[in-house]
Amino acid sequence: MELSLALATEADRDDLAVYFKHYAVEEIVRHRVCCYTSHNFTVVAKIGTLIAGTIQWYVKENPTAGLVEFEEVYVKEECRGKGIGFRLTEFAIWSVRDYFNRIQIRPRKIYLFVGQQNVAARSLYEKAGFAFVSEAGNLFSETEIELLYSLSL
Q1: What angle is formed at CA 128 by the lines to CA 150 and CA 131, rounded to 5 degrees?
Q2: CA nearest neighbour of 92 among 17, 136, 153
Q3: Cα diameter, the chain
Q4: Are 68 and 29 in contact (CB under 8 A)?
Q5: Alpha carbons 63 and 68: distance in angstroms, whole number
Q6: For residue 153, what pLDDT is reported?
Q7: 61 neighbors 69 (Cβ within 8 angstroms)
Q8: DSSP string, 110-148
């Protein structure tokens, strides 16, 4: 399996639109892809030319706070269990450090939310150095509690 990791570019827009079709509303998909390829960041893991996983991240509030949120951390079901999620996470962390280095600001923290029942993802984040911070309640679903995880850089 030949896996490549990179920040998405304009050339990835159509592939990302297909990848994010789970949003179901074409306008939302289009705006999300545009947002994360123009002024935020999408890390893509590809097997050949097919997207196997993504992490989207953005700088929160004032960049001098050095705070980043990871979201849309997702590996396609058929690609799970192959280490792609961990490699994607490592590359995304590197890309955050690289970005802040280029703008000459010290990065401080990356945070993310993960479902309490998503044991595999929680394990992956802990392996990558993230630590459990607190329960955040029912943010995305009335049936699952979200947990806040943070990584100090």
Answers
A1: 30
A2: 153
A3: 42
A4: no
A5: 9
A6: 96
A7: no
A8: EEEEEETT-HHHHHHHHHTT-EEEEEEESSS-TT--EEE
